[in-house]
Design goal:
With about 180 residues, the protein is an alpha/beta fold. The protein has a single domain, classed as P-loop containing nucleotide triphosphate hydrolases (Rossmann fold, 3-Layer(aba) Sandwich), CATH 3.40.50.300. The protein is about 50% helix and about 10% strand.
């Protein structure tokens, strides 16, 4: 199962969601970022599990949602592309001072060995109501993930700063190797 699960990670605001949309347009199964879904739910409900209010609570919810996403897609026969995933959520939880769960969760719930990282791309970075952190925080997150994935045995592939169709072609060619 894990070889079919492909993670798009990297810098916040680096184009992951746009790439995910392109992969869906091409007929691939996709799973939207847990963090965005949580922020939307919490804002709608007036909740407090928001990264700018309670990062640990937010990250715990992201871990739970990432595990549920994996379970939901377990029976899907083809490739499944995840906009972030369990490693991102568990890494954020540990970075927030929460429970040290990263190693155990990452060992029990593997993804494809190739993880695709969107590099920092200030020209396209934009904050919004759901992404309230600045570019400096995005860079720090990227640095943490760029280190974390290889420590867990993943091969990171940096996606080119290119139009989304070229990025998708590059990603799919890397998987075909």
């Amino acid at each position: 199962m894990s070889d079919r699960f492909i993670v798009l990670s990297g810098c916040s605001g680096g184009g992951k969601s746009t790439l995910l949309e392109e992969l869906a347009r091409r007929g691939h199964a996709v799973v939207e970022e847990p963090g965005r879904r949580i922020v939307q739910e919490e804002l709608a409900a007036g909740g407090g599990a928001l990264p700018w209010l309670d990062l640990a609570a937010f990250a715990r919810r992201a871990v739970e949602l990432a595990l549920a996403d994996r379970q939901r897609m377990a029976g899907h026969p083809g490739l499944v592309f995840f906009d972030r995933g369990l490693v991102d959520a568990a890494s954020a939880l540990e970075a927030s001072g929460g429970e040290p769960v990263l190693a155990a969760l990452a060992a029990a719930h593997r993804y494809n060995r190739k993880v695709f990282l969107t590099p920092p791309w200030p020209e396209i970075y934009a904050g919004d109501a759901e992404r309230r952190h600045g570019f400096d925080a995005a860079l720090a997150e990227y640095a943490r993930l760029e280190t974390t994935y290889p420590l867990l045995g993943y091969e990171t592939v940096i996606l080119p700063k290119a139009p989304v169709t070229e990025r998708a072609d590059f990603l799919l060619a890397c998987l075909a190797e």
